[in-house]
Amino acid sequence: MSLSSLTRALRSLSLTQPALLSSQLSAPPVTLLAAVGQCRGFLTTVSLDQNRTLWKQMEKYTIKPMGMKKTGGRDHTGKIRTHGIGGGHKQRYRWIDFQRLRYEPGKDGRAFDEKVVEVRYDPCRSADIALVAGGNRKRWLIATENMQVGDLIKTSGVIGRMAVSANEGDAYPVGALPVGTLVNNLEIQPGRGAQYIRAAGTSGVLLRKVNGTAIVQLPSKQQVQILETCMVTVGRVSNIDHNKRIIGKAGRNRWLGIRPSSGLWQRKGGWAGRKIRPLPPMKNYANLPSISAQ
Hints:
Layout: H1 2-16, H2 22-26, H3 30-38, H4 45-51, E1 66-67, E2 92-93, E3 112-120, E4 129-134, E5 137-142, E6 152-155, E7 171-173, E8 182-184, E9 204-210, E10 213-217, E11 223-227, E12 231-234, H5 250-255, E13 283-284
Parallel strand pairs: 11-13
Antiparallel strand pairs: 1-2, 3-4, 3-6, 4-5, 7-12, 8-9, 8-12, 9-10, 10-11
C-alpha cells in the first residue's frame, strides 16, 4: 500500500512541476535551508579551534580576566592525555607577570616601588594573587603571606657590597640577600621569570653563596645552584592553609574540575609504603646559557 501511494505522489510531481535544470536540481530548497538553520549545529574540531582564546600567544599584557576553554585532559586529537580532569566551574584566567624585574620604558637599571591595590583569590592556582600598580602600569603578582592592600613593595636588580635588609614582598637578585632568607618565586635563569616555589604556602631557603652563584633549598629539600643575578621574592607564598582545606563531599571535587578514577581495585605493589632514601644530588643551573643567548 505504501509503495502504491509513493508511486502516485511521484507521478503527480512529475506531471505538475516543469522540468528543472541541473543547477536547480543540485540546489536545496529554501524551506530546507531554513529548517537546517533552526537545527542545532554539530560541534566539530574546526569550530573549537576558531573559538578557542589563544591567551598564551598574546603579546600585549592586560590585567583583564580572559576566557579560558576547558580541555578535559584531551589533546587536539580528542584523546585523553591526562586522567582525572573534566568538568568544573567556569574559570577566567588572570595573566600573572612572573618576570618581576620588568622595567618601564626609559627607566632601565633603577629600583622602583609598586603599591598593592588588591589581594584576591585566583581560581587557576592555589596561591592568592595581588594587583600592584606603579608608574604607568598595573600587573598581577603572586601574593606573599602577609601582603595587604596599601603595602609598598620594592623591586631592584642591583647587587651591593653588603647584603640588604629586605621586607616581605620585595624582589632582589638572590646574591643581594643575606644567607638564611626565606624566598619564593625563584628564577633559574636570569630574565626568564619565576619557575620554582610558586604554590600556596611554600618557601625556599638561601643556604650559601659561592663564586657568583647561590644555592637555594626548595620545599622538597632539593638543592639548586643558580646565578646570583636570578631574581627572587622575599617571604613565603600566601594561602598557607591551602593544604588544610576540607573537601567535605565528592561534588566539590567535581566543582574543582577533578574527575574521579574508575574505582577498579588494584593491589599495591612494592612502590607503596614509606622508604628512606638519600637526598637527590644538587641541580646546577649556573652553567646554562642565558635567555638572551637563546
